[in-house]
Amino acid sequence: MTSVLVEVLNGAGEELVDRWVSLQTESVLFRADLLAPEQVREESSAFVSQLCESLERSGAVDPEATLDGEPWEGMRAFLAALFRSRAQRGFEPDEVAEFLLLFKLPLFEALQKELGEDPAKLVDAVWDATRLMDRLGLYTTQVYARAKEEVIARQREELLELSTPVVTLWEGILALPLIGTLDSQRTQQVMEVLLQEIVDQEASVAILDITGVPTVDSATAQHLVRTMRAARLIGAECIISGIRPQIAQTMVTLGIDLGQVESRSTMAGALRVAFSRRGRKVVATGEA
Amino acid sequence: MEAVPILRVGDVLMVSIQVDLHDQLAERLAGDVADAVAKHDPKGVLIDISGVEVVDTFIGRVLGHIAQLARLMGSRVVLVGMRPAVAITLVELGMDLPGIETALNVDRGFRALGLEPPG
């Protein structure tokens, strides 16, 4: 049956590609802003020749067989590259799916032209072709989803890095303005960055500012306490600042205890504590 | 048999652990520190663990024991130079060594004991 497909594909050749390309470019889902018609043509004929090659190499195989085998390796690589790049360029899922779905019509037309006199054979061929196209379609869905996930993961990482800046306030005094929700992954990152900075700068006091943390629940408090314990182990003290009135109320209501940690409502208050730990104090000069 | 050297620097005993402590070595160290404290009666004991890359609950406990026994014999223990990764591991193991003083490096350790670092 596979050989019928190859014959039809080879026989229809350019005509089939033309028909497919025009279907794609006329579709309501066509992204004229992202794709030039010439590019569609190029990709489409590359797909057809890749399909012929894979079909020829797989020979007369079981139509139920999957695309995992070696003959389909080239096809998998081709589709993966194509759909990954489309996903990254911002195509919607339905727009990428169109590519393969629209191929069915020209393919079925070609099959009909070839096998029109033998309805039983035609039905078989159409069914095989449908199975094959569906499997290719499912594979591309996977590729597309995976590419999207990669984008999300990368953004998440970048966000994590962006959101953990360590600021040197004074010789030996570091500040870490925390912004956003503190989950355990974030805490891990904060801890690693903070401890490394403490070691690098030989700091003895670190101020964790939680002004930008929207809510503090017992899990968040636990994360903060762990960070402070780790900092203490390497020989630095942590001070918490930015405890807003609502946060203080929530913490008291929830019975959250930060232990013997110094905490202040403002960064200024925390900085004063830090100065006194370093044996310094702020004095007025008398000038305006 | 290998052992961790214990050096006397003025009124302070310096224990510099430059290898990964295995169980036997750790236990032997506890005994050695106890003997040295009894012999020299130092103001404090600095344990430098900047060379230690891997810890487990046992090592954490031994460090705690050493601090306790030194305190019982009248001298303070300051743990210095712990690596960030080690600190994170200990906290994750739930062993944050509550009774032990810590310092970033040997210099700070001397200051924590109220002494000027030598040199």
How would you portray this structure in words?
The complex is a heterodimer of chains A (about 290) and B (about 120). Chain A contains ten helices and five strands; from the N terminus they run ααααααββαβαβαβα. Chain A has two domains: about 1-155, Globin-like; about 165-275, Transcription Regulator spoIIAA, CATH 3.30.750.24. Chain A has about 290 residues and is an alpha/beta fold. Chain A has a five-stranded mixed β-sheet, with helices on both faces. Chain A is rod-shaped and about 100 Å long. In chain A, α2 (about 35-60) packs antiparallel against α3 (about 75-90) and α7 runs parallel beside α8. Helices cover about 65% and strands about 10% of the residues of chain A. With about 120 residues, chain B is of the alpha/beta class. Chain B has a single domain (about 5-110), classed as STAS domain (Transcription Regulator spoIIAA). In chain B, about 40% of the residues lie in helices and about 20% in strands. Chain B has four helices and five strands; from the N terminus they run ββαβαβαβα. Chain B has a five-stranded mixed β-sheet with strand order 1-2-3-4-5. The longest helix of chain B has 18 residues, at about 25-40.
Number of strands of chain A: 5
Which CATH class of the largest domain in chain A is shown?
A: Mainly Alpha
Assembly annotation: heterodimer
Strand tally of chain B: 5
* Mean of all residue-level pLDDT scores of chain A: 85
Share of helix of chain B, binned: 40-55%
Radius of gyration of chain A over alpha carbons? Answer: 32 Å
Largest interface: A-B, 19 and 19 residues
Portion in strands of chain A: 5-15%
Cα shape of chain A = rod-shaped
Q: Write down the CATH topology of the largest domain in chain A.
A: Globin-like
By DSSP (H or I, 4+ residues per run), the number of helices of chain B equals 4
Q: Let me know the largest β-sheet of chain B.
A: 5 strands, mixed
CATH topology of chain B: Transcription Regulator spoIIAA
